[in-house]
Specification:
Helix 3 links the parallel strand 3 and strand 4. The protein has one domain: Rossmann fold. The longest helix has 20 residues. The protein is an alpha/beta fold and about 220 residues long. It has a seven-stranded mixed β-sheet. It starts with a helix and ends with a helix. The protein has six helices and seven strands.
Length: about 220
């Protein structure tokens, strides 16, 4: 169960989301980006994850995500952003500046490589944090124990290149602000049963790890 800290955090989050008119405490958003990549892929993944989160935590999350562009003023309403896709991602200078401002102000970005996003993502994220490279998030980091226990780090959900899953991150003043699920494809594991050939235990692991990401974003 989510600790009382979550309820206290709602009182101090630096986002306009707390002032917006909604029957839910938390709404997350999917990033619509340029470059030609399919930012919209896995349309059923987030609603499935959010239903699982509602059933297994105290997080009062909306049942579906919003869509947001990095240039939109709505960006700062969301404590959690999800960026997903297979192809090319591009950030304009203004988008990169706004994403940096969002992250330094308390926001959290989860990037899910749905296979094919990696090369351009690493290039574009340099526009946001020029002095940083992705580093492996240590297995004892709170993101692996925020609600469910993952003592061995990010679970491997869907095979692409046969490489091990890596949970990579960017930090600001000790806080994990970007989590990059690489060679794991949590998004595929979040989709309804039958969409992908993932066994039940893989889907369960993906949903539990996704829950950790949301709980961490709301309590750190």
């Amino acid at each position: 169960m989510v600790r009382l800290l979550f309820l206290l955090t709602l009182l101090v989050l630096p986002f306009d989301v707390l002032a917006q008119s909604s029957e839910y405490d938390v709404t997350i958003a999917r990033v619509k980006y340029g470059g030609g990549g399919d930012w919209y892929s896995g349309e059923e993944s987030l609603p499935t994850l959010l239903a699982f989160v509602r059933q297994n935590t105290l997080l009062d999350v909306a049942p579906s995500e919003d869509i947001v562009e990095l240039t939109s003023d709505k960006l700062f309403q969301y404590p959690y952003l999800y960026l997903n896709g297979h192809g090319t991602v591009r950030f304009t200078d203004r988008e990169a500046e706004r994403l940096r401002r969002y992250l330094l102000g308390g926001g959290f970005l989860h990037v899910n490589d749905d296979y094919g996003l990696d090369a351009t993502l690493r290039q574009e994220i340099k526009k946001v944090f020029p002095d940083q490279d992705f580093v492996r998030v240590p297995f004892d980091h709170p993101i692996y124990s925020a609600h469910f226990q993952f003592p061995n780090g990010l679970p491997k959900i869907h095979e692409h290149n046969g490489q091990p899953a890596e949970g990579l991150g960017l930090f600001h003043e000790g806080r994990l602000v970007v989590f990059y699920s690489y060679e794991s494809d949590l998004g595929d594991g979040w989709e309804p049963e039958g969409v992908h050939d993932n066994p039940p235990e893989k889907r369960q692991a993906a949903l539990r790890m996704g829950t950790n990401l949301l709980v961490y974003a709301m309590t750190n």
